Amino acid sequence: MSTVLKVENLHVYYGSIHAIKGVSFEVGEGEIVTLIGANGAGKSTTLNTVGGLLKPREGSIEFEGRSILGVAPHKVVNEGMALCPEGRRVFAQLSVKENLEMGAYTRPASEIPETLEMVYEHFPRLKERQSQMAGTLSGGEQQMLAMGRALMSKPKLMMLDEPSMGLAPILVDQIFEIIEALNKAGTTILLVEQNAQMALSIADRAYVLETGRIVNTGTGKDLLNDDSVKKAYLGG
Amino acid sequence: MLANLINGISLGSIYAIIALGYTMVYGIAKMLNFAHGDVIMVGGYVSFCSMMYLGFPAPLAVLLAMIVCTTLGITIERLAYKPLRSATSLAVLITAIGMSYFLQNAALIIWGANPKAFPNMFKNIEAIEFAGARISPVALVAIVANVIIMVALTLFTSRTKVGKAMRAVSEDKGAATLMGINVNFTISLTFAIGSGLAAIAGVLLCTAYPTLMPTTGSMPGIKAFTAAVFGGIGSIPGAMIGGILLGVIEIFARAYISSELADAIVFGVLIVVLIFRPTGLLGKQIHEKV
Fold this sequence. Notes:
The complex is a heterodimer. Chain A is of the alpha/beta class. Chain A has nine helices and ten strands.
């Protein structure tokens, strides 16, 4: 198994606040890897830094062996990774289809219809609503749109930040099923979740983040049965 | 009556073209570019000089004014506003006002304080008689130019990839960056379009009211800003409706009430509209589900 993403000794600051304190982790090709942790542990900060929205003060981020630290934020997507951000952040005033087109912004127009069909296959609901403004979709539909939009760049690595946030349990199940399906179809997944139970149950491997540091790691199964993880994140 | 209406729509069309610059820049960069009015003035001087001193024909003079203003707009954004991208909006606002004074005073040094008489570009064209009203060529050109610009911009933002990206940037710069959209380029492009339109507005304004001074752009600039707010800042059709309504109200107030009070009435209408519709006539109503 080759390594897709390798993050080493990452340090990120917000002004003078030291948010990420030497985080290292790897994601192998075809894996589902999850970062779990409480609110404020630094999960989203880590993901946003890998996605190019934040600049680390120290450390290295390599994607398929190439450093992406010098890459302009809007060019990170060209490297083959897409970030589906926390809070979905769909373009509310653009139609569903336009949102998806934005996801394929850096790809040639001729390839878009085919990718669009692929996304509609995963998310039939989006096809039904393609001319509707994204802001009028329900929370679950917006999450699907955010994921579909990220898929439009045909990423090798898809990063998902809290995809279950604010969704009803039945929708959470559905979203996680889709994540597994995308993974089976060949997309490597890096998942950040507060819903540790769900995340660990689909993850090949997991890292536990606490106040900017990785404090535990193992397979999803191991961590599900780990006493300290149970106590802290799985409600006993 | 009809003549006043047409004059109002014509003046309003000029306001609308200027208002587009305010509204687009606000929509994308979330800032009020108070130097926008002064870019109009620069457009006026550039076209004046190229016609009077260089002997350029009118269309070439307009083109040159557009090129200079577009470059000026991009340069202003790069030098003055870009370094403040993450600063407070108050800092950006003060910088914009400072930039406005800078342009006015630079014009004062370059072209002097004496008003220049702007040449009539349409002196060979007769005024048109329409239902008993005389329509000056510049009034007609302003209205036609406004319609063309509105249609072109609407098609640009709704049909083209770059135009859609512009709307995406105006909603969420971070998410747009994740899509691979170059936000800095999009902001530069917005300033370029707004400033190019300001040049057209400058030439139309100076042809309709042929006195050119370093402060020529400030009053129309403020009125166009009012028009943008009136129509709903950030909205392209709002700028058009706001501009035309403002022009019509101003001309009617001048003709039937008092020419001294006309401006007070214009701003009074704005205040009333904002009391009842704080986001302007076509302002974005937030109807997002959470």
